[in-house]
Write a structure and sequence with these properties.
By secondary structure, the chain is an all-alpha fold. It contains 18 helices and no strands. Helices cover 81% and strands 0% of the residues.
Amino acid sequence: MTAGLAKMGGTALAENIRRFTANRVSAFICGVIFTALTQSSSLTTVVVVGMVEAGLIPLAPAIAVIIGANVGTTVTGQLLSFQLQNYALPLAVAGILMLALLPRGRGRDLGRMLTGLGVLLLGLKVMATSLAPLSETELFAAMLQSASLYPLSGIVAGAVATALLQSSSAVVGMTLLLAQSGKLTLAAGISLIIGADVGTCITSLLAGLGTGICARRAALAHLLFNVFSVLLILPVFDMFVNAAASMSSVLPRQLANAHTTYNGCGAILMLLLLSPFQRLVEWLTVPKSQEKKRIWTMISETITDWF
């Protein structure tokens, strides 16, 4: 699917990101759009980490792109909440026919993209169907019950599952499809989805291993953004669940809306505080103690000026 989109675009992802990162807003929108199209925030963040290491974009717009990727990945939940997975086979078949019958060009690239999207949706549906019997076991039921009563346990479970699968979209998709079958509560589903956002950071952290300080800073920014978002939501988790319940009368739609709202609010806050956040990331990754003190002074001055 990504290969088809890349060919349809006519230019490399890195070039597009570089062109549209003149300011934090355009960089954020770039991250949202590309991740929504490819359904892979991991791909976006890994490419951005590589671009920062290569010196193609500065750290600040790179962070904005990564924040946008977190919002763009919520499109998966929105699609599944409308039960688009029921059209997985027709989409895949249509894509295969386009690949087989059309000459080389954008038609075949579109067919490749449709085939990938159909297989993605079908895979999520199959995984959720396979998980359904597990939900009847005592261990799985206890985990979902714990996630419902204790949000932090659900967040940890979602993070671990995403780290193992290397796909937050897969975990979010399976959570939504389990919700459609009535296997989990709204609170449990929200905690698992939030955990999936944290777990996807492992990809960018792995991409930053063995690289320079700039790439490590981009990867760390991705992790800190999601950790800070969790710390902010935990004290008001019950209020957030009640707000999500009022957004729709259908559980999958409630979960999808909660995911978009959660990442959207976190993105707005982080974009407003992008400069001090960047300085914090730089301070945490500076090896020399004197330099850390200097950057800490700059952070304090920035926060003082802000307020």
